[in-house]
Amino acid sequence: MIKRYVVTGMTCSACSSGIERAVKNLNGVALCEVSLMGKSMKVDFDDAVLPEENIFSTVKSLGYGIYNEGEEPVTKEKSQDKKLFIRFIISVCLLVPLMYVSMGHMWGAPVPFFIDPHEGNSCWFALYQAILSAVIIGVNYAFFKNGVVAVFKKVPNMDTLVALGSGVSFIYSLVLTVFIFLDKDAMHNAMNLHF
Q1: Model's pTM, two decimal places?
Q2: Is the dihedral of CA 70, 38, 1, 25 positive or negative?
């Protein structure tokens, strides 16, 4: 039996190939083709061996939505796009002051004196960046959740790369922040933060 499905939540080719690989590994599947651009999946499977619910549960366990072709609720996808846009706007609004403080000294921009590490305020400098970064990570928590789930399901995707890159940078900078508060070469460590 050949069936077509609508798959939502894919963001990169690693997502589509991960879904394809997972569904192909199910017993009873002869063919599985996933289209990232078409947000669709075509599966040729033996319904006597493999119930359709298993295909649905496999795709959903990877963190994606799946619907029979023609049954997808359009409003859900529009609301997800709207949420993503709102998260983007919030992130940009927080990122601008974070980048100004963390990188402004590279082009000679004045940093407010109360967080200027050159004025002996390395602790406030690091704390300001840590708080803004933590809020940005909190707003974009979905990328981290999806990235970690993808690793454990053995189908890493773009969310995994985003979570790994920003997570490692955040943890590294957090360790340096602890050193700054312990007054271990505070000025040097403040200039090496990568929040």
Answers
A1: 0.70
A2: negative
